[in-house]
Inverse folding.
């Protein structure tokens, strides 16, 4: 009885550590690249940045207040498990915003290169959010809205965040020193972060389909079951040239499991004929959940 619980605990600990790592990356993106160049991003952090630019109130303070309100909504709609991780995420990010010092403009990127700050900040922020989402975490803010949309509709998290954030970034135009250039930089940062987020999340979730033709199909099927922990289907076929019956192994797996499957096939039957193709979507146990209106 102790072993399963031990596995569950270590898995949870790893997820929380990875969430914290993602949030450190996200906070660093703002402190090192975006805030020094007074660039506005999306989400609650974007609103907090606008408040800091306009009033001088630190990002950490505004961010904590906004998320305190949104967490009530999260508890109501998304349940306790997501909300606990959101509370953890909000707490960690608030602390990181408070303890990571604001970089002086020009420390990492020249004062005259705000576009480079957009690129580096967007990549770092998007990567951090991707790591956080892969571990079922949330930093609060518009993440709550994005999770709601993603829960009930087949819309990627990056696209959902994009819809929520355009209005926030556009509002930076009305700051005392705001102009269309600042809005463009903000939208550029958001686009890069959104693209990076989708690449990190969907890159891991991409699925592939294998068709494996081999006389040693039983050994290969057993090895895939035991080592990759993927289901295998054996299809009956006929070689049209030889008119001999053949067995075809069909496997659906994640893209990052491809190398292991190829190694299994090569070790057991180097002469096997293997076809691998990308699967646009795979839904069911062990893969994605079907989401319909």
């Amino acid at each position: 009885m102790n072993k399963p619980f031990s596995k569950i605990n270590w898995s949870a600990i790893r997820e929380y550590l990875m969430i914290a790592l993602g949030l450190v990356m996200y906070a660093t993106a703002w402190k090192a690249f975006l805030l020094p160049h007074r660039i506005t991003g999306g989400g609650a952090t974007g609103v907090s940045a606008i408040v800091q630019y306009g009033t001088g109130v630190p990002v950490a303070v505004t961010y904590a207040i906004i998320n305190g309100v949104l967490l009530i909504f999260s508890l109501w709609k998304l349940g306790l498990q997501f909300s606990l991780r959101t509370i953890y995420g909000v707490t960690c990010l608030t602390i990181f915003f408070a303890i990571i010092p604001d970089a002086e403009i020009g420390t990492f990127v020249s004062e005259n290169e705000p576009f480079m700050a957009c690129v580096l900040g967007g990549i770092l922020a998007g990567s951090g959010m991707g790591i956080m989402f892969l571990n079922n975490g949330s930093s609060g803010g518009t993440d709550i809205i994005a999770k709601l949309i993603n829960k009930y509709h087949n819309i990627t998290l990056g696209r959902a965040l994009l819809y929520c954030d355009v209005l926030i970034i556009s509002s930076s135009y009305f700051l005392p020193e705001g102009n269309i250039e600042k809005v463009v930089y903000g939208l550029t940062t958001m686009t890069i972060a959104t693209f990076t987020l989708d690449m990190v999340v969907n890159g891991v979730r991409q699925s592939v389909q294998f068709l494996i033709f081999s006389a040693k199909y039983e050994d290969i099927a057993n090895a895939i079951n035991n080592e990759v922990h993927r289901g295998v289907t054996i299809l009956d076929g006929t070689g049209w040239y030889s008119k001999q019956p053949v067995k075809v192994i069909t496997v659906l797996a994640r893209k990052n499991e491809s190398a292991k499957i190829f190694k299994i096939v090569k070790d057991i039957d180097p002469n096997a004929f293997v076809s691998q193709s990308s699967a646009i979507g795979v839904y069911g146990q062990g893969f994605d959940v079907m989401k319909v209106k």
